[in-house]
Design goal:
- There is one protein chain.
- The chain is α/β, with parallel strands linked by helices.
- A hairpin with a 4-residue loop joins strand 4 and strand 5.
- It has helices at about 15-20, 40-50, 55-65, 70-75, 90-105, 105-115, 175-180, 195-200, 205-210, 235-245, 280-285, 310-325; strands spanning about 5-10, 30-35, 120-125, 130-135, 140-145, 155-165, 185-190, 215-220, 225, 255, 275, 290-295, 300, 305.
- The protein starts with a strand and ends with a helix.
- The protein has one domain: 3-Layer(aba) Sandwich (Rossmann fold).
- The radius of gyration is 19 Å and the shape is globular.
- A seven-stranded parallel sheet has the order 3-2-1-7-8-10-12, sandwiched between helices.
- This is Putative gluconeogenesis factor.
- It holds the Pfam family CofD.
- InterPro entries: CofD, CofD-like_dom_sf, Gluconeogen_factor.
- Belongs to the gluconeogenesis factor family.
C-alpha cells in the first residue's frame, strides 16, 4: 500500500502534538502553518524585520525533525527578561528571521532549515507575507491583530485576513494548494479555532482548494473552550463556524474527546485561556453532515489538558488508509 498523503493545517501548540506522532508513521506528511501571529516574540520580529512571524513555524520544524533533543532545546531557548532587546525571544525565532532576511523569503528559509534538520515531510507557511487577522464581533465591533482579539468581550461573528504591509487580500504560499489537491487526508487542528485554524483556511486560494479536493477532511475538535474565542461553544459550534467561514460543508469527520478532565486538575493560573471542557452536541454535529469519531483523546500533563497525539494519529491513519483503498 502506498504511503497516505496527509496535510495538517493549523498553528499554535496544537498541531505539533499530532505532527510529532504522525512523523513516526509511514506517511507522506505536510504541515501548512498560520502566519497571522502578531504577539510576543513573533510580533516583535515581524514588526522589526517585515517577515512572516516565525514562532509557529519554529514549533512545527522541531516537531517534524529528527534533531537531537539538545538541538531542539537550543532552538527553543528563550532569552530571559534581563536581556534587553533580546528578552523573551526564542533563539529559533531569531535564526528563522535571519535566514528569511538573507534569502528574501520565509518560505525559502523554512525549506532550507527543513533540509538542515532532516525534516520528515514538508512545511509551508500558509502565506509568504505577514498577515493581519481581523475579527468582527456580533455587536459589529472589529479588532485587528490576533493578540488583541481575546481582549474584547463578546462573541466573534467572523474573521478575515489582510496582508500586513499592503492591506491586500492574502495569497497562499507556493505548493500549498498543490499539497491540498494531492492529499488523501487533510487534518484541521487541533488548535485555537479563530486564531490558529481559520487564519489558514480563510485565505481564498486555500478555501477554494478545500472545496475542490477529493481528500477526506478531518477536524480535531478542541478539548477545552478558550477565553475570548470559543466561550460556551459545543463541539458542533466549532464545526458550524468552520463551515460558515468555508461557505459550505466540507468536513467529513470530527474527532471528539469524550474523556472527562478532572475539575480539580486544571492549573488555571498557567493556562488562563482555558475556561471549561467543550460540551458535546452530537445531534447538531450530525446536522452538519459529519462522521463522528468519539474516543479518549485526552492527555493530562504540565497542569493542562492536551490531545494524546498517538491516539489522534491512529484515527487519522485509519481514515487515510481507507481513503486510499476507496
Amino acid at each position: 500500500m502506498s504511503k497516505p498523503k496527509i496535510v495538517v493545517i493549523g498553528g499554535g501548540t496544537g498541531i505539533p502534538v499530532v505532527l510529532r506522532a504522525l512523523r513516526k508513521e509511514k506517511v507522506d506528511l505536510t504541515a501548512i502553518v498560520t502566519v497571522a501571529d502578531d504577539g510576543g516574540s513573533s510580533g516583535r520580529i515581524r514588526s522589526a524585520v517585515s517577515i512572516a512571524p516565525p514562532g509557529d513555524l519554529r514549533n512545527v520544524l522541531i516537531a517534524m525533525s529528527d534533531m537531537p533533543k539538545f538541538y531542539a532545546d537550543i532552538l527553543q531557548y528563550r532569552f530571559n527578561e534581563a536581556d534587553g532587546e533580546l528578552a523573551g525571544h526564542p533563539l529559533g525565532n531569531l535564526i528563522i528571521a535571519a535566514i528569511s532576511e538573507m534569502q528574501g523569503s520565509t518560505y525559502r528559509a523554512i525549506q532550507s532549515l527543513a533540509k538542515f534538520f532532516h525534516v520528515d515531510g514538508k512545511i509551508y507557511p500558509s502565506s509568504d507575507a505577514a498577515l493581519t487577522l481581523h475579527a468582527v464581533f456580533k455587536d459589529g465591533y472589529e479588532v485587528a491583530g490576533e493578540s488583541h482579539i481575546a481582549g474584547h468581550k463578546g462573541l466573534i461573528d467572523h474573521v478575515y485576513l489582510t496582508e500586513t504591509a499592503t492591506g491586500n487580500t492574502p495569497v497562499a504560499s507556493r505548493n500549498v494548494v498543490k499539497s491540498i489537491m494531492e492529499a488523501d487526508t487533510i487534518v484541521l487542528g487541533p488548535g485555537s479555532l479563530f486564531t490558529s485554524i481559520l487564519p489558514n483556511i480563510v485565505i481564498p486560494e486555500i478555501c477554494e482548494a478545500l472545496w475542490k479536493t477529493k481528500a477526506k477532511i478531518i477536524y480535531v475538535c478542541n478539548i477545552m473552550t478558550q477565553r475570548g474565542e470559543t466561550e460556551y461553544f459545543t463541539d458542533a459550534d466549532h464545526v458550524r463556524v468552520l463551515h460558515e467561514h468555508l461557505g459550505t460543508n466540507v468536513i467529513d469527520t470530527v474527532l471528539v474527546n469524550i474523556e472527562k478532565v478532572p475539575e480539580e486538575y486544571m492549573n488555571t493560573n498557567k493556562f488562563d485561556e482555558y475556561l471549561v471542557q467543550v460540551e458535546h452536541d452530537f445531534e447538531s454535529l450530525r446536522a452538519e453532515k459529519v462522521n463522528i469519531v468519539s474516543n479518549n483523546f485526552l492527555e493530562l500533563r504540565d497542569g493542562g489538558a492536551f490531545h494524546d497525539g498517538e491516539a489522534v494519529a491512529q484515527e487519522i491513519i485509519a481514515i487515510s488508509q481507507q481513503q486510499i483503498i476507496d
